[in-house]
Amino acid sequence: MIRFENVQKQFGRAKVLQGVTFAVKAGEFLVILGPSGAGKSTLLRCANGLVPPSDGTVYVNGMQVTRHNLHTLRKDIGFIFQHYNIVGNLNVMNNVLIGTLGRKSYWNFSFRREDRQAAEQAIAQVGLADKAFVRADKLSGGQKQRVGIARALVQEPKVILADEPVSNLDPVIGLEILSLLQTINETMGTTIICNLHHVEYARRFGHRIIGISGGRTVFDGKPAELDEKQLAAIYAAPKPCGEAEGSSNTAANG
């Protein structure tokens, strides 16, 4: 499904990713665990071409990301952002319809009846049927993230990349969002790659956990294998100099 081979990324003097290598199987719920600034966000952005690696290779469905048309590549990849990235003055329906543009040609910006039906279905799937025509800036944080998930679902993706999807939410709402992603994974077979820094969330939802620290992979195993020694390795190393994780508007976020 997705394969990282010796992926490295440097922004100026900051070495954000340093030789990351692992593969993700189709249908997996993979959690990338690590502290703020570890390189998690940059890694996901390398997977869908938002950030090209400085060295190494990323493959998605056998296609090398840097050598293929990104519009074509991204048709099968949904992305969920930490800060939602939805348009506040548009209603929920129109925000979700934006997700259908990824499967259209560059010059086709019209929405068909089938697009609206798919958007309605995605909105209902995330539990927002009664909010379909409410402006997005009137929603709570958890509801906004549900809009982001619906926007990804309407693409009919084979994989969803979720970048710290619950870091701005309270624990109860965060669990609801992760449970929703888990349901999507189990019922639709969608591969989920989810960045988290909350250890218990990682243990509860991940089929497998990749531990990232200082831009390097320091753990790759099942949740039951994640012990105190492994956690110390993940959280002990200093983050790369100059990196700021979590900002969706910063190229060098981790």
UniProtKB/TrEMBL annotation:
Pfam families referenced in this protein's UniProt entry, alphabetically: ABC_tran
Keyword flag Manganese: no
Keyword annotations from UniProtKB, A to Z: ATP-binding, Cell membrane, Membrane, Nucleotide-binding, Phosphonate transport, Translocase, Transport
GO molecular function, one term: ABC-type phosphonate transporter activity
Domain ABC transporter residue range list: 2-239
Any single Gene Ontology cellular-component annotation: membrane
InterPro entries the record matches: AAA+_ATPase, ABC_transporter-like_ATP-bd, ABC_transporter-like_CS, ABC_transpr_PhnC, MetN_ABC_transporter-like, P-loop_NTPase
Alphabetical list of CDD domains matching this protein: ABC_PhnC_transporter
Gene3D superfamilies: P-loop containing nucleotide triphosphate hydrolases (3.40.50.300)
Record carries keyword Transport: yes
The organism's place on the tree of life at top rank: Bacteria
TM stretches of this protein: none
Protein name (database record): Phosphonate transport system ATP-binding protein
Taxonomic lineage from the root: Bacteria, Bacillati, Bacillota, Negativicutes, Selenomonadales
